[in-house]
Design goal:
Arc Repressor Mutant, subunit A; Bacterial regulatory protein, gntR family; single chain; DNA-binding; mainly alpha; 9 helices; Four Helix Bundle (Hemerythrin (Met), subunit A); about 220 residues; globular; disordered N terminus
Length: about 220
């Protein structure tokens, strides 16, 4: 029961729940690049009305994930090398900003979660699980800055980048030990309160991943 001074937790609006479900379909590869997404198909699959589905699809179009097809619904954008070259540096810059904006004393619980997530990432070979753990790691970095707008911007770009990461991991290379070590080193730097070093390592991570995926898409 909520008490005075306690924020009341409100359930997510249906349109946001539908948005999250569609993102899930994209990121678990149930919907692949180039596939169509129609309102009737999603109504049947998700069991909700047309309005929240339409709102979610329009939001994904505005975010650059979908393109509209006249009288044929929407289509998941094909993977594109130019998009990789454009969006990876944006995410790298936003995460570097998030690291610099972290509080002077990073919460021990956050450091523990980062360390645990990095360890789990280094111990699994499953590409989908690896992607989920890497995504969790970088979401924790952004959230610790305590900047809601920054957190939301990184989340949106992570959705766009996630399509590339998963496709690359599933088809080409499910594991990069150098990247695993870099995640550990980011946590090491944060534990020593070396923000600039942590930000530099994070930038190196995204630069390397961008180069690998760009080369794959040629």
């Amino acid at each position: 029961m909520a008490t005075a001074g306690t924020a009341i937790e409100r359930p997510k609006p249906l349109r946001d729940q539908v948005y999250d479900r569609i993102i899930g379909l994209i990121l678990d590869m149930s919907v692949k690049p180039g596939d169509s997404l129609t309102e009737p198909m999603l109504i049947k699959r998700l069991g909700v009305s047309r309005t929240p589905i339409r709102e979610a699809l329009l939001r994904l179009e505005a975010e650059g994930v979908l393109t509209s097809q006249l009288a044929r619904g929407f289509r998941l954008k094909p993977l594109d090398r130019t998009e990789v070259e454009e969006i990876f540096p944006i995410l790298a810059s936003l995460e570097m900003l998030a690291i610099r904006e972290m509080p002077d004393e990073i919460r021990p619980s956050t450091l523990k979660r980062l360390r645990t997530t990095a360890a789990r990432l280094g111990s699994t070979e499953d590409p989908i699980q690896r992607w989920r753990l890497a995504d969790e790691f970088h979401r924790l970095l952004a959230a610790e800055a305590g900047n809601h707008r920054l957190d939301e911007m990184t989340r949106q770009i992570r959705v766009m980048i996630g399509r590339y990461e998963l496709a690359f991991m599933l088809e080409v290379s499910p594991r990069h030990r150098d990247a695993d070590k870099r995640h550990d080193r980011i946590v090491d730097a944060l534990e020593r309160n070396e923000r600039l070093q942590a930000a530099r390592l994070d930038r190196e991570h995204w630069d390397e991943e961008s180069q690998q995926i760009t080369h794959w898409l040629r």
